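Troubleshooting: if your tokenizer reports a length mismatch, compare your output against this known-good record of 293 residues.
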Amino acid sequence: MNWDDIRIFLSIARTGQILAAAKRMGVNHATVARRLTSLENSLGTRLFDRSTSGCLLTEAGSRFFDRAERMEAEVVAAEADLGGDTPEITGTVRIGAPDGFGVAYLAPRLGKLTDRHPGLTVQLVPVARSFSLSRREADIAVTIDRPETGRLVAGKLVDYALGLYASKAYLQERGIPASPADLGAHDLIGYVEDLLYSPQLNYGTEFTKDWTARFEIASALGQTEAVRGGAGIGILHDFIAREDDDFVAVLPKLRLHRSYWMVTHESSRPLRHVAAVQDFLRDQVARDKIMFA
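Known-good structure output:
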């Protein structure tokens, strides 16, 4: 069994396509298909159901995927151990994060990390979606749910709070609600329910059981800008809204509390460049913890 063939197998499994795997690995797609066939022949079993729409792991392929990932982890660990005397942090680390945390908090601060490590490239993907670490969509994921399954390593990054906010202009025109019952008379801003990537985001009813948004946006930053523009009352992150004088807290005693988790695949543990980014994120939010309270 050839290790390069196993690497190709993992790339196909993570991308779901031979062509996508070839692009990721920088080789010809015909070579990828040939190496996959060679691996299947050596194992005496079919690992994928191939079709024009992509490659789906067979039952045998799923079992082999788990073993192949363990082999990959051992190879990564050996490479990290042998390169342990290299002082410079180099490589590329992709961080997947919710858009509010990723854009409003991480983006202005990650430059410190790249200044500290000139050989390090950081890719920030701040989008409202979940990331598959097994498929290597990200090296580090910041999530609002603690993962319960998979070969993942998770640790709480920081707790944060959310509250109701509106613009000064909106409240001057429509008045300030005195109780949760008054929210029904106002324009409310919320998520597009069928696009929620986590049930933790379905928090409108935690303020009032009759929460009905007239303006739905599938992005925390989009909701923030809608509130800023006077479109209504929205549920915003305190660490974003408190920094802007245009926002006024509505019913300020009502708060929601959530947590950000930092998650990596266990095979990434030995990687010095991934560990360096994790350490930076932990240190940074520890310094700024009061922002999130």
